[in-house]
Design a protein that fits this description.
With 447 residues, this protein is α/β, with parallel strands linked by helices. 34% of the residues lie in helices and 24% in strands.
Length: 447
Amino acid sequence: MSIHPRIPKIKMPLNVLIIGAGCAGPAFAHALLKTSPKSTITVIERSASLRTGGQQLDLKAKGIPVARALGIIDELKAACVHETGMQMVDRDGKSLIGFGVNSSSKSSQGLTLTNEYEIMRGDMVKVFYDASVAERRKIERNGDRQGSLTYKFDTTVTRIEQSDKGATVTFSDGQKACYDLVVAADGQNSRTRRMVFGDEVNKQSFKKMGIQAAYFDIPRLGTDDNDARMYFAPGSRMVMTRTGDRPFKQIYLFLMKNDERHERMRLVHHQPLDKQKEAWAEIFQDAGWECKRFSDALKTTDDFYAHEVAQIRMPKLYSGRIVLLGDAGYCPSPFTGMGTTLSLVGSYILAGELAKHGYNVDAALQAYHDLMQEPLKKYQTLPTGGDTSFYPASELGIKITNSALWILSSLKIDKLIMWAAGLLPESKDKYELPIYPRLDSTAGEKS
């Protein structure tokens, strides 16, 4: 039997507003309900309902023990996409090099490895949402009627005013409310971050990578197998597909460093969706492999999203009683594959520190900021050191590199090139989570 440190006495239940019902918001709501069942928690979301679309997400490294601590590991496992591996292909679809499934215990980073826990974004959001609602119902079944959990959709924040006692928030419907803590979990392009920290800090925290990305789904063909595929095309274009055991194929289009095209696409992102689709289709129509099929399908796809790829690196994760969580505070970019893991680790630490400090919010926020520095340094590290020009852009250069990859694979030394590019997982994730008595102690186990 394990012996835990004395649990601090709860001085007062918290009144908390969470902005954003993606992955981080509901995950934190669930963790906070475990550590503070009497708290009043409101989660707002700008969409009219839970956003069930989106592409495949990875959960790995310390995200696994945190999910286990929250009691949702079985639900996440049941929602997994069964992907059999990853192949790099040439313009004719010929496999150049292949990789199997990476163990969830490894801290692999990047898009080139299939992981044990691969979950569609919409499925993951629903698991987190359902778990938070179930946790609140369990609290009420146990006879505790103090506190609540409320999800409000089609709602945004228009103004935040702070004092030494908390924050007064004005909502899009004109209503006002006061909170002990406001948690901004509204994504990479967080409006809350800009509103609270100011335009200059917001601009400096947005670390551009010179990459544009688009994501959408198309119908699966009978010839599609369960492997993911990656293809590099001339002109600094990259394509990835993921199908797994689903009836649709996920398409990822990336425009790597190209200053002229980069500026054009930044403007395109502000245009209507049909214009955005036309621009992406035009650029990839002649890229080779199956890109014409993918480009033609853009006309009819309903699940389309495009953005500028970046990392968020904030000098401080909170200001007064406003704290940043997940991508809003430390988006690592899709090229690390660690966004969901960081969101879960952040939710776990923030909820744990609030409990540990007896709900001294100011002390808890400082501890959260300090404790997040180690996982941020580790999980925001980019493969190849952030150099996105590691693959040649010219047709001749790609042909030569593809031939080299095929030879390496034939000689069974394909892992050598992945090691050199920094794309293989570490043998073990050495980062250790703090242990909080009010959360399941298994989260501190080594994974």
